[in-house]
Predict the structure.
Amino acid sequence: MRNYQSIAVALGAVAFIHCGSRTEAAAVDGDAASTDATAADAVVSEEERPIAGLAAVWAVHDGEKVERDDLQHPARSGNTAWREGAARIFGGRNEIVAFQVVIESDEAGIEQMDVDLASLTRRGGGGAIVYAPPGDDPSASVGRPIQIFTENYMNVTAPTQARWLWQPGSAAAPADPVGWKPVQLVPENARQGRGGLPIDIAGRRNQAIWIEVYIPRGLAPGMYDGAVELRASGGLRRVPVELEVFDFELPDEGSMTAMIYFEPGQVSLYQGRSLTDRYHRFAHRHRIELVNAYSPSSLSAARGRFDGSHFTAEAGYDGPGAGVGNTIAPASFYGPGSAYDNRASAWTTSDAWMAALATNAPNARTFLYMPDEPGASQYPRINTIGQNIDSNPGPGRALPVFVTSSYESGLDGAIDIWCSSAAGFDPSRAATERAKGKKYWFYNGTRPETGALTIDAPATDPRVNAWAAFKHGVETYFYWHADHWEHNFQKQGERKQNVWANTITFDNRGQPNKPVNSQGFIHGDGVVLYPGEEVLHPDQDRGIAGPIGSIQLANLRRGVQDHLYLSLARQRGLDAEVSAALAAVVPAVFSEAGSTVQFAQTGDVYEAARYQLARALGGVR
């Protein structure tokens, strides 16, 4: 656990900032800014001293995975977030922006490296964003606009072999699939030796520090300055940080929905206790919704999740979507159950469900999930269920029928919500179905059509999915699992996967009577959250009482925020800027892509497009 008392002694005048109340961390008034400037001056007056074992320091945005052993990464010499020796980031109010500080060690390595970002203070006064240390709950965000994480690396020794994601060895496959990849974002207060600060860095390695900054509502636009301070072996290295805050604010309500299936039972199995509310708050700050099946009684118990009261300061939450509830409340998931096979039971069950929805989550959308990825043999049952619901004279008739399939004529009359695979998504068919009053969503991700949420894909792959959704009018994106820690049922042998030690999280090899080309393995599939505690594999316990996020999840959030940029720009008539951004990032996706990846695969392209949108939204010409 990090020793905050020693930090206070080392920082002297800044000790009060670091150890003060978390509820006072996001000061935006002039007096606070003046105090912060005085403290910052006290720190800057301390001269830098060499750090034993430190070879280099540089910064990069959140759209790159810098491998542990890649000491010649091309972004090292400069990127959109690293110019003239300073980390430069930007955003609007009510937005989370992130960057990485990459620490490179020499042959001797570095012992007990500590990292701080005390504050970001507005030039000329009038505002500041101030750090406060984390507590026991990783989802508690009140007064914590600056959050610091260490990146945990996992070794990918062989590329993903799953032809349904991409053809191995083809032009659609990731260009750099193997090596020590950064995966999890471990909170700074994790256990020592398991990612908590201070951290040891072995010789000739990179250790990236991930820093997130929430830009509060109401903050004055302008340039904000600070410095990431690296301390080890009596030395000090300071990395200047410049945050440009533009004069616009992202809405709390999303312009698209990103829903990810969540199993609370996995948390109880791996962490030894129920932490469902913490996982939902953590996801909410990433602008995604964790979803699973509700019953009338469980929906009533979760009412605060939908009216927004679970996402307030009183509940420990601050950030995007404060006070705004979730919007998806499924009546079933990964199958409809048996209650809808019989007409009388279907009427009774759907009526009871829609009544519970009207009482507990009147603004939420719902659906009945049909058998997952059904084959033709399952169509008769799906059609029967659709007819049973459609014939209901009561409120249950309004329950939409959802299927994970692209359009199939054999299901035409039964389906209200088509949710196509990325590979099967045809924009023209989507437009046809929407014209008929149907919804047309997509799920997961396949290359070259969209991005794949895997450890061995580029960091920006999850991000592109939101851009693809915007370009083709998709209102909801679905990813199949958030915490797929216990292996899929097809896995041969032990299923209680050690997700901190083994990158392969989906493995259906060795199945009898299955063609070889339908079997394979995937790195990080279905895992965007990791267990902060580990009772099954105690040597991997991070001591964090809740979820630990990942680079995949952070880039999915970045994409959802990008979608808000694009939506605001379109609402304000900035059509030229929107068109330019889409042309740069997603010239062709889904069925338009052909056999090669045509979307951008480096963060610089996304950040350049986002910067132009930010300037336009902020009225900068």
Summary: Confidence is low (pLDDT under 50) at residues 1-43. Residues 257-570 form a domain with the TIM Barrel fold (CATH 3.20.20).
